Structures are given as structure tokens and as C-alpha cells.
Amino acid sequence: MKVTVKVPATSANLGPGFDCLGLALPIYNMITIEETVLPGTGIEINLMSENEVIDEMIFDNVPKDENSIIYKAVEMLYNSIGQEPSELKINVQSQIPITRGLGSSASVVVGGLLAANKLLGSPADTTALLSIATEVEGHPDNVAPAILGGFILASQEDDGSIITEKLNWPEEWDITVCIPDFELSTNIARSVLPENVPMADASFNSKHLAMLIQAVNTKNEKLMKAALHDKLHQPYREKLIPGMKEIMEAFKHEDGVIGCVLSGAGPSILVISHKYDLDKIKSTVRDIWEGQSIKTDIRTLKIEPNGAEIIEE
Ligand code: HSE
After folding, report:
1. Could you tell me the distance, in angstroms and rounded to a whole number, from the CA of residue 142 to the centre of ligand 1?
2. Do 27 and 127 share a domain, yes or no?
């Protein structure tokens, strides 16, 4: 038996929502798991990318055995029902650029879990799958929108349980995803964060996250513009992302640009705008990055509403 799952890209954090906000985007990875009948063939993992030039070298460094995150997630699911995975062939057809802050690892974890769950006769519900995916990823802000679609507030509570809440994203607010041609691993982007932050910075983020939630609920553009600021992660990551400061500066006083935030751990940047010239966003970002010899892929995208979907059994 063979199951294929289509999983969207995600953008986490949205400025002040560090480790708890994320939205799904219509760029997809397809994850197929096949139970092979030949005993002793073990695990086979194949990665194929549409961005061959960019991703080929990165793929060479991604584990394709029992150490891969997709295998770890699948193994945890099998173990949760007292079984061990054995002869599995896993194929990942990837459109989501890797190590760009667009949830590519969350997508393969989610795709692997949903496919394996289907192969096992669906023993786990969405809550259980979310919980395993969060354990593998370390935080729920990419895996939750990857599974559920839309714009999601997600929290892993102290007892391990996951709370998710779908939020409204005003249709008329455009999301322009600016992807540079350099990679930044989440591990490195997390390693520059401090163990502790000043109380004033924690308070800054809680105020701004509260503003953001109210702003999307009431489609309040002015409040959203005030909300899209962060002191918990972006200032520390700025030094890892050439051009980030200049891009954020360039849009700071533009009417119609609601805000500019790091996508997940970066290096991609989201520009959120309303009735603003989207070509101007593209040319501004392109000029800054290309001025530093960084090639760009810039797309204005709608939020993906549905999340992961089983498309073939
Ligand atoms: N919230 C995570 C971070 C997202 O900022 O590190 C990246 O996976």
C-alpha cells in the first residue's frame, strides 16, 4: 500500500508571535510512503526537488536514513501504538525551498506522519499527530498550520498538550514572500538567541502579540502596523541575514506597507501590505539583495486555507 500527502509551506512567528504564530502558504511538498513487501529492505528515503540548482547540494547533506526527521516522526507514531516501522520507502517531492524559513522540515514531518497514520489504519487523531510533530520540531508554529491550514495560534503547554486556534487573516492584506538564495538553518538561527531576555522585552512582545490578534480580528490596519514588531528573536537574527535591516528600513514609512517580518527563523522575509504596489515591493527587495550579490525569488501569495491533504492511497 502507498499513501501520498500534499503539505503546504508555512511562515512562523509573524514578528511578535515567536514560537506560537504561523500561517500556511500555497507552496507544496508531496510526501509518499510505501510499505514494501520485501523483508530486509529497510528504510529508503528519496528527496527530489523542483529547485534543483539551489537544493541539490543541500539535499546531499540531509540524512536519508534512520536519522532523518521524517523517519523519527514515523517511528514515534509506530511506537505510540506498540509497533516498529520496518520496510518503508519514503519519497519527498519538494517545492518548498529548504533552510529558508518556510517550514520545509515541518512539511516532511507532517507529511510522513499523515501518510504513516493512514497506512496504519488511522490510529492517531489530529491532536495526537500534532503532538508528535511538535515533539520532533521542538515548537508547534510551523507544524500546526501545515496540518490545519490558515493562520494559526499554537501553544505547547507545560503538560505537553497542544492548544491551537484558527485566526482570521484579512483577505485584502497581501503577503509577499521574499526568498533569498542563501540558506540559514534553524539550529544556527536559534543558537544566537539568548537563554534569558529582559523583562521589558518580554513585556514588549506580549503587548504586540495582543495587538496583532485584535488587529486581525477587527481588520485594523493601523493597529497591525503598530503590532508587527519583535524584541525576542529578530534583533538577534539580524546579523545572520544580510540586507534584512535595510529591507525593513525601506518599508518603515511607506503608507500601504503594514509591516515587514522575518519568516520563521529566516532568512526569508514577509512584507505585509494593503493596496500597495506589489511590483514596488519586489523591486525594492530585489535591489537591496542584488546589491549584495544575493539572488531572490519573490512571490505574493494567498494564505493556504486547508492544510495537509491525503491525495492518493
Ligand atoms: N519559531 C521558530 C523559530 C520557527 O523562530 O526558531 C523556525 O522553525
Report:
1. 8
2. yes
C-alpha cell of 60?
A: 546531499
Cell of 312: 492518493
Is 230 close to ligand 1, i.e. is its CB under 6 Å away? no
Judgement on whether residues 292 and 307 belong to the same structural domain of the protein: no
Domain count, the chain: 2
The answer to whether the CB of 259 falls within 8 A of the CB of 252 is no
Residue 134 carries which side chain, given as an amino acid letter? T
Query: What are 131's three cell numbers?
Result: 503532538
Tell whether pTM > 0.90.
yes
Residue 4 Cβ contacting ligand 1 at under 6 Å: no
Indicate if 41 and 86 belong to the same structural domain.
Answer: yes
Range of the domain at 287: 174-301
CATH number, domain with residue 33 = 3.30.230.10
Do 133 and 46 share a domain, yes or no?
yes
Which CATH number goes with the domain that contains 237? Answer: 3.30.70.890
Q: Are residue 222 and residue 150 in the same domain, yes or no?
A: no
C-alpha cell belonging to residue 279: 511590483
Q: What is the CA 233 to chain-centroid distance, rounded?
A: 16
Helix (H) or strand (E) run with residue 107 in it: helix 104-119
pLDDT at 61: 60
pLDDT in tens, 209-219: 999 999 999 99
Ligand 1 touching residue 190 (CB < 6 A): yes
pLDDT tens per residue, range 296-306: 999 999 999 99
- The 10s digit of each residue's pLDDT in 264-276 is 999 999 999 999 9
Q: Is the CB of 265 under 6 A from ligand 1?
A: yes
